[in-house]
Give the backbone structure.
Amino acid sequence: MNPPGPPPTGLRPLRQDWPAEFAERYRAAGYWRSETFPGFLRQRAAERPEAIAIVDRERRWSYAELWRRAEAHAAGFLARGLRPGERVVVQLGNIAEFFSVVFGLFRAGLVPVYALPAHRISEIAHFARRAEASAYVVADRQDGFDYRDLARALQAEVPAVRHVVVVGEPGEFTALEDCVAAPEGLPPDPDPQSVAFLQISGGSTGLSKLIPRTHDDYIYSFRASNEICGVTADSVFLVALPAAHNFPMSSPGHMGALHAGARVVLSPAPDPATAFPLIERERVTITGLVPPLALLWLQAAPARRHDISSLQVLLVGGAKFTPEGAKRVRPVLGCTLQQVFGMAEGLVNYTRLDDPEEIIVNTQGRPISPDDEVLVVDDLGNPVAEGEAGHLLARGPYTIRAYHNDDAANARSFTADGYYRTGDIVKRLPGGYLVVQGRAGDHINRAGEKISAEEIEDHLLAHPDVFDVAIVSIPDDFLGERSCAFVIAQGSERPRPAALKAWMRQRGIADFKVPDQIIFVERFATTAALKISRKELRARLRAEFLQAGGAA
Ligand code: AMP
Ligand code: DBH
């Protein structure tokens, strides 16, 4: 094990520290095993070099091939002047290069910052600034969008991003295929306790926060998930959701599958027309979906032309799956449902494969680890009785103690004794099973994508015709929740909703954050004191809207 070493000059250090007595306990219990990402992939490549690791359309990379490419890119990144400890924003879809790039970065001691393909300049610039990134890896084009334009905009806004590496046609940037060098002379593997990557939080207040996860803690989370979800070397895992998202990455995800020596199949899109043929062709055994997609699959399955009988386990999470949907999974898809309630900050809960139907259908599972400490408390922080709803707090061997570079969020999001305030309202049942009731904060969970009301309000307030705005989540039959903007126009001219939406897209925000609905109002209700919190205002607007019969 080599010591973490100082970060490259001037960069804020990346840390994730558990108090010594906790770290010792987690190590003694065998959760933290001093494994690293490059360490486990090297081992799989040695054990089963010919086994297929990654399937991307017609491309099939063996474990040996994936490892060879990862090492070549590791050396290539360092040869281009990046130094271990530097951060690299990675924005790639479900393509094989996602894996050669991130394992290349891990091998070089570089730190990926995971962006989603939907993110645009406002999000990417924020990640790059907060992480102090010096490089950006993108595909040339994806789903009709040219990411090289985004790279140009990023370098104009954040000049510290010195390197842009492109999968495909590079334009004026560096092609990934040229970002290779001989792996001799690569530094030793990173420290298992060091931060391996920065994951993105869905953002409850304001902009997304950066979540530093260590090799030790994250590898434990998916190794243990493999056991709970029955993933072995014989499994075939379909990545239907975006690969950079924490759920398909680690619950048990593609990382769990690679750790098991299993096969990872990449689906370019999550819809049944794309995924079902892949399930048939590759004999997929397990995958994960957000609830709206699970409903689409249930709808499409009866008339399907493809044989999906290889599917043994369907994980559904990211947002609450209704018991009505949950009940239909086994009869319609012929596989076992596993509900999963997790967060990129750590804590993940699963229903177990052998749980009774009633638990599988009606709960969001129980924690992975015997050492996950879960508290359900009232507004004052006092534990509530079993079965009562309260705020969920969590602490444990794979739950972070702090965000990166965000003192204000850290003060808000963690208790003095190190519990993460999840923001979720849950009930805890006997056996530790959790039922999600809702949440305390004002974000919108739109089909599993979390949107901060405040972030979107701030964007809209920059529009010259907008005097004030409140973003509210509205129940939606399909999405679970949709976003609705209540807008007070500046002056008498109301902008057209379509024009407002187009303007938001032009500002460069992820499409899923553009409000689904825009409603103009004359004024917002105010209390006698003419003072009302944003939170209260949003709650009132929602209540009035629903009362007026405006629901799903
Ligand atoms: P993030 O912190 O951005 O990774 O988002 C995690 C949040 O997603 C959780 O705190 C929950 O609010 C929500 N979530 C994830 N899975 C579920 C689920 N199965 N049911 C309800 N909410 C969920
Ligand atoms: O929503 C999530 O962030 C999520 C859901 C299920 C997650 O991070 C996970 C499982 O690991």
